[in-house]
Amino acid sequence: MTDHNRNDAAESALKLGLAAGVVAYAAWGVMPVFFKELSGVSALEVLAHRIFWSVPFGAFILFLRKQWPEVFAAFTSKRVIAMLALSAVAISLNWLIYVWSVLNDRVLEASLGYYINPLMYVAAGVFIMGAKLRRAQIASVGLATAGVLVLTFGAGVFPFVSVSLAVLFTAYGYIRKTTNVGAMPGLFIEVVMLTPFALLYVLWLMNAGQAAFMSGAAGKDALLILAGPVTVIPLVCFALAARRLKLSTLGFLQYIAPTMQFLFGLYYGEPFTLYHGICFGLIWLALGVFSYDAVRKNKKPRVSQAV
Known about the structure:
Blueprint: H1 3-29, H2 31-36, H3 43-64, H4 68-75, H5 78-103, H6 107-129, H7 135-154, H8 160-177, H9 183-207, H10 218-244, H11 247-253, H12 256-267, H13 274-298
Helix pairs in contact: 1-10, 1-12, 3-5, 3-9, 3-10, 4-9, 5-8, 5-9, 6-7, 6-8, 6-12, 6-13, 7-13
């Protein structure tokens, strides 16, 4: 292959990665719109369908990407299966709290959780990995903490949704980072593990006459089935992007989702007080400092990390 062809291939890969990354984060950004259409359905039932319908759609994606050998290989490792069981618990709780927050008009609080998530990774690195923080990182974590405290004591409400989403997603990320399995095969195994519980819950609801699914509302039924693809597609796009983009580029793209969620929260008329403004302002300032430091460090030679 000539240098010209290599450059063209690299440019094509970069464009594909950028497009896939934008699609992934934009899809996560419009999640509130999708789940708002399921108002009247309990968050737990939505979660159950999100898990259950991810299995057939995930199997189809694995077939297209020829990743079934990775799934079978994962099942031969007790450690991988044990770690995926832990990550399944973390991500299912994350999904449940997120869906509950949307259905209960707390999208702003959910968006705050995903804004502070990168900073939560930094804090977790200190406590779990014993990492040393640079001054800019210390400042970022301090500003984010101040923002949460302002909202807690100023508005008199601890942002449970925000902190829970950030903690659970950080835990999920660290577990998956230390587990030798690909993004899609890992997700498939996670939802397969969770499916018996989801199916039993849906059957129990139907037997008790409390299920929204197949209760006569065809539109709701279709949306509950679509919860599977809505869960899987962004992750596939993210996996494509992660393999083709620098971590710094991916880091900037990740702010697309919480920003869109923030705007949707305002659109839906959720309360936005002075304390919310101060809190979000401090978080955005923290992310600005954090991102500047990351870009500056990225200019120096360093060992690349797997995503």
